[in-house]
Amino acid sequence: MRKDPVEHLLRALYSAALYLLVPVTVYHLIWRGFRQPEYFQRWNERYAAYGAQSHGETVWIHAVSVGEVGAAAPLINALLRERPDLRLLVSTITPTGSSRARALWGDRVEHVYLPYDLSGAVRRFLAHYRPRLGLIVETELWPNLLFCCRDQGIPVYIVNARLSERSLRGYRALRALVGRALRTLRAVAAQSRRDGERFVRLGAKRDAVVVTGNLKFDIGTDPRWQASAATFREHAGSRPVWIAASTHPEEEAMVVAIHQRLRQRWPDLLLLWAPRHPERFRPASQAAIDAGWRVATRRLTRWPDPDDAVFVVDTLGELMDFYACAQVAFVGGSLQDIGGHNVLEPAAVGTAVVTGPHLHNFADIARQMQAAGAMVVGQDADAVADAVEALLADEARRSEMAAAGLVLVEHGRGALAKTLALVGRDLPAPPAT
Predict the structure, then answer these.
(1) Who contacts 248 (Cβ-Cβ below 8 Å, separation ≥6)?
(2) Which residues have a Cβ under 8 Å from the Cβ of 236 and sit 6 or more positions away?
(3) Whole-number Å distance between alpha carbons of 192 and 206
(4) Which end of the chain is more exposed for a tag (fewer CB within 10 A), N or C?
(5) pTM over 0.70, yes/no
(6) Pick from 54, 88, 70: which is nearest to 423 by CA?
(7) HSE, side-chain direction, 13 A CA sphere, residue 21
(8) Catalytically active residues, by annotation
């Protein structure tokens, strides 16, 4: 294959810049480690220093953090169920993603941190884990990773692919390089037509972009959710409950203010509070204590009692259980300009959903949820408080929203089957019987 001299130059400049930034990566790990100690661990994986022993061939799925691990869960569960012969490797970048993967699959999959996009580290990663196929979830576009996979003949797909207008603009400086990297892909399995078009605009081959839908609709049902809700009620009583989930630091004062307002109308109202990141568990608890409330946490007491005003869900992997315990769910990352988080999860357990206005990471799902009458979007914290208050006071409307959300989730299923059919051509053949 004839080498592209422009690609060679762009890769050289990009790689040189990354190597110059290696000291910054060390500083970043230390800085994050003071906030989340897990960042002090497993540094060898960040730089692909594994030792001499290599692994057998794998099917590799990369999911950067908690949200992407959740999106990949239906696909990974299907591969575990239908192809138990495969050796699955899940890579993440964040410790919370690692914890979520271990909580979901334990030792049934291998886990590793994806190394920084240094050409040498990427080649060591590929040589060590020997992937036969790479499945990258959503929007992780690392040029050296994609080029090295192509150079070693490893087919790579982006599955559940999404690309917002904001993210597209963010790639402007690296567009020439990222566009060439995208053209190495076997296929882009896009969540929507709009996402697919944006990948084409960034540089993907049009005939390699396929709209498969959103894997988040293929969320499974789990009897545990309703069992948890029943146990919760045994401890907490029959009082009204709302949940603030996946909140970010700038939203914490807003959550406290909303709860203060709502408890003026319902003095026994309970807030379930699940911050997005573990380093915010303690600050959220302290904010609630400073507001004068009795606070309990999942790790310390397991369940709230009738006198608790706030119950902080300071664990990972249990959010669906607690969505099922609430009448109304506020999904965070939407009052702060983060882009929102997965609003399908509360809908899937029959809980009415409220968000703020910043939903660019879930734009298509948000439009569908609003059109179906399954979600209310407040333009600011006061509007969110209005919506939560109105829903807590109106059981009939809550029921209508819950039913609409359940129907939407059910009708949206199908991305899993399409994705499996697409990537199946590059899965290793099953062993002969």
Answers:
(1) 275, 276, 277, 280, 332, 333, 336, 338
(2) 270, 303, 304, 305, 306, 308, 311, 325
(3) 14
(4) C
(5) yes
(6) 88
(7) 12
(8) 68
CB contact at 8 A, 256 and 287: yes
Which tokens in the block code for residue 274? Answer: 């699940």
Of 62, 88, 249, 245, nearest to 160 by C-alpha is: 62
Helix (H, G, I), strand (E, B) or coil at 330: strand
In the chain, the N- to C-terminal Cα span, in Å, equals: 38
Domains and CATH numbers, the chain: 54-215 (3.40.50.11720), 224-412 (3.40.50.2000)
Return the structure tokens found at 136: 């990258």
Strand order in the sheet with 310-312: 295-297, 310-312, 270-275, 241-247, 328-331, 352-355, 375-377
To the nearest 10 degrees (0 to 180), the angle between helices 395-412 and 363-372 is 130
Residue 342 burial (C-beta neighbours within 10 Å; 0-12, 13-18, 19+): buried
Yes or no: say if 196 and 209 are a contact pair by the CB < 8 Å rule: yes
Question: What is the phi-psi region of residue 333: left when phi exceeds 0, alpha when psi lies from -120 to 50, beta otherwise?
Answer: left
- Identify residue 347 by its one-letter amino acid code: A
Count other C-beta atoms under 10 Å from residue 256's C-beta. 20
Return phi, psi of residue 272, to 5°: -95, 125
Q: How would you write the pLDDT of the chain (433 residues) with one tens digit per residue?
A: 557 888 999 999 999 999 999 999 999 999 999 888 999 999 999 999 997 666 678 999 999 998 899 999 999 999 999 999 999 999 999 999 999 899 899 999 999 999 999 999 999 999 999 999 999 999 889 999 999 999 999 999 999 999 999 899 999 889 999 999 999 999 999 999 999 999 999 999 999 999 999 999 998 778 888 899 999 999 988 999 999 999 999 999 999 999 999 999 999 999 999 999 889 999 999 999 999 999 999 999 999 999 999 999 999 889 999 999 999 999 999 999 999 999 999 999 999 999 999 999 888 899 999 999 999 999 999 999 999 999 999 999 999 999 999 999 999 999 999 999 999 999 998 887 6
Type of residue found at 134: G
